[in-house]
Amino acid sequence: MTQTTVIPGHIAIVMDGNGRWAKKRFLPRLAGHKQGVESLRRCVRLCIERGVRVLTVFAFSSENWNRPEDEVSGLMSLLAGALAREVPGLHAEGVQLHFVGDRMGLSDKVQDGFLQAQAHTSGNERLVLNVCFNYGGRADIVQAAARVAGQGQAITEHSLNAAMGMAHVPDPDLLIRTGGEFRISNFLLWQAAYSELYFSPVLWPDFDAATLDAAIGDFSRRERRFGQTSEQVIRSSAQKVTV
Ligand code: IPE
Ligand code: IPE
Ligand code: MG
């Protein structure tokens, strides 16, 4: 019997390892980040080809401001350049762009770039690409709680979820971290409650079809139980097949 591959509807990625990729080549860290942009472009295309509907990437955390000043300013100009260069191609491929995270602290140019890119691609339906920039999972939960409370609403899972930066998409099915570290680093704390986790030693600039397919293959072989027993899961999937 051939095993069919289950494609995750929503993949989230902590794109880690740019600095080490550059260091291995005796290059400045920013060269690694530049290569990281190339890798993201390739990853978007691969996700489209495989039928993934939502891709969410961690591009800059609220803690990354603590890096050396020249790296932070380099990353900001890389972002501004990528916004100008990449959006037409993404639009042509049917990508709907969203920028998730705190806009405060970002330059007017970047903020305008975010708004324009979102407006320009809002009608696209092939792939939703969420770029988490100046994003922190805890900060997102806090701002959602403050918003719900400010509106005088009761704090429930539903109301909090609706006030969160990722309210427009379902939770990630598969969360990948490249770069060999086994941690979440304040990414999607709320939304990853039942995501399948996959850690790869591959450095982000080297992320390719083989790495993505290995992650999807691994995901395919997992049994997602959401608190139920294995027997319940098998029974309900058998029922789904027979109806
Ligand atoms: C991830 O790569 C990109 C950002 C955090 C902006 P790193 O820059 O963290 O790369 P390493 O972990 O130092 O190799
Ligand atoms: C997480 O990577 C953030 C991004 C990939 C944008 P970091 O490199 O900042 O994470 P830590 O510091 O190793 O936990
Ligand atoms: Mg890192």
TrEMBL record:
InterPro entries: UPP_synth-like, UPP_synth-like_CS, UPP_synth-like_sf. The lineage of its organism: Bacteria, Pseudomonadati, Pseudomonadota, Betaproteobacteria, Burkholderiales. PROSITE patterns: UPP_SYNTHASE. Homodimer. NCBIfam families: uppS. Substrate binds at residues 17-21, 29, 33, 61-63, 65, 67, 177, 183-185. The keyword Transmembrane helix does not apply. Catalyzes the condensation of isopentenyl diphosphate (IPP) with allylic pyrophosphates generating different type of terpenoids. Gene3D superfamilies: Decaprenyl diphosphate synthase-like. The active site is at D16, N64 (proton acceptor). This is Isoprenyl transferase. Binds 2 magnesium ions per subunit. Mg(2+) binds at D16, E196. Its EC number is 2.5.1.-. Its cofactor is Mg(2+). Belongs to the UPP synthase family. It comes from Comamonas avium. One of its GO terms (molecular function) is ditrans,polycis-undecaprenyl-diphosphate synthase [(2E,6E)-farnesyl-diphosphate specific] activity. Keywords: Magnesium, Metal-binding, Transferase. It comes from the Bacteria.
